[in-house]
Inverse folding.
């Protein structure tokens, strides 16, 4: 026998499905449900929980901070192929690591260290639970989650791969760009950076003269975002004075 509350959930889900088909049309609704199912499946495969949307208001963040929403797993595969880490060398930094999805997928590749920087201690607690549940699947020996405002985080000089999935904008993003630049000045080195942002938003990394736009990366079936890969211009860092 199906309990009554189970029937209520099924009825609510069917109601949502019908509303989405009416709102989006069958083709877009199918795309949405296929995406949601694949995200849940990938979370289930790793034994973690990273789906959902948490607003800056719920997180107690200011206006320049973006909501929590995990990056599409398909995009993460593209990003990690782009970084192509070497075990003895590469250290990845995820700005605004949220519930830890990108950190976990990165730690399944041979990075020397993976660091997630996140302002919300609530999200960080979830990320730590997720990391411990996925531990047996990780190959990176050193995974860290740091609770801090990204503007205050001094980028370690071993960081070689930086990832940002639209974590913040305006002065917060400017301060973070300065932190990355300072770290490169302190120790000029090869560094790759991937920035993912809403397609309509101006990408200020294009104006950073210490970075060279490498290429635009494919975003699977997320067509309202852009994802761009950059490389640090090491010569310019060597030549510049602090
Ligand atoms: C779009 S989510 C990205 C989640 C994660 N990187 C992923 O790809 O699954 C953006 C995250 O940035 C965090 N964030 C916003 N402002 C921040 C700040 N000033 N310092 C650190 N994290 C911040 C938010 O709390 C949120 O978790």
């Amino acid at each position: 026998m199906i309990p009554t509350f189970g029937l209520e959930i099924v009825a609510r889900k069917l109601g949502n499905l019908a509303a989405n088909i009416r709102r989006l049309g069958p083709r877009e609704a199918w795309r949405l449900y296929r995406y949601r199912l694949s995200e849940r499946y990938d979370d289930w495969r790793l034994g973690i929980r990273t789906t959902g949307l948490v607003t800056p208001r719920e997180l107690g963040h200011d206006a320049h901070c973006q909501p929590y929403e995990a990056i599409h797993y398909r995009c993460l595969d593209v990003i990690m192929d782009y970084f192509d880490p070497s075990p003895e060398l590469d250290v990845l930094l995820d700005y605004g690591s949220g519930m830890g999805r990108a950190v976990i997928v990165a730690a399944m590749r041979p990075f020397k260290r993976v660091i997630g920087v996140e302002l919300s201690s609530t999200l960080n607690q979830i990320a730590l639970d997720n990391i411990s549940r996925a531990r047996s699947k990780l190959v990176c020996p050193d995974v860290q989650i740091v609770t801090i405002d990204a503007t205050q985080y001094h980028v370690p000089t071993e960081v070689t791969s930086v990832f940002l999935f639209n974590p913040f904008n305006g002065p917060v993003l400017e301060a973070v760009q300065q932190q990355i630049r300072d770290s490169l000045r302190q120790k000029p080195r090869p560094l790759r950076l991937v920035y993912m942002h809403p397609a309509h938003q101006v990408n200020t990394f294009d104006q950073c003269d210490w970075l060279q736009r490498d290429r635009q990366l494919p975003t699977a079936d997320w067509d309202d975002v852009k994802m761009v890969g950059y490389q640090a211009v090491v010569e310019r860092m060597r030549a510049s004075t602090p």
